[in-house]
Amino acid sequence: MKTIALPLIALIAFAGYTVSVMLQAEQSLIDFGISLMSRPDTAQVVIDLYLLATMAGIWMYHDARKRGQSALSVIPYLVITAVFVSIGPLLYLVVRGLKDRRRTVAAPTS
After folding, report:
1. pTM higher than 0.70, yes or no?
2. Beta carbons within 8 Å of 85's beta carbon, 6+ residues apart
3. Which DSSP symbol is given to 108?
4. What is the spatial distance between Cα 87 and Cα 15, in angstroms, rounded to a whole number?
5. Residue 84 contacts residue 18 (beta carbons within 8 Å)
6. Which UniProt keywords apply (predicted)?
7. Do residues 58 and 71 make contact, with C-beta atoms less than 8 angstroms apart?
8. Phi-psi category of 68—alpha, beta or left, where left has phi over 0 and alpha has psi -120 to 50?
9. Is-contact 34 24, C-beta < 8 A?
């Protein structure tokens, strides 16, 4: 449980906040993104965020492959990352932690 506690708390809090903001937003997510990219100062932050998201995507891919999963198993997380950035890697960490926990519980003890 320790390995998923922090990502799970962050995922629930940030996803909840994201849903709340989206429900109150006066413009679409695409319009908001376009307005952010229209100014150099906010564009720099968006570019920085997506560079980090790209690195997280690469890490998720390599981590999944190292764990014996197919490259296709990471696609849902990459799509979520492309749209909501932080939610994709957080969800990946939670699901990975739950899978590890199941393996540990299911593994026979000697």
Report:
1. yes
2. 49, 50, 52, 53
3. P
4. 7
5. yes
6. Membrane, Transmembrane, Transmembrane helix
7. no
8. left
9. no
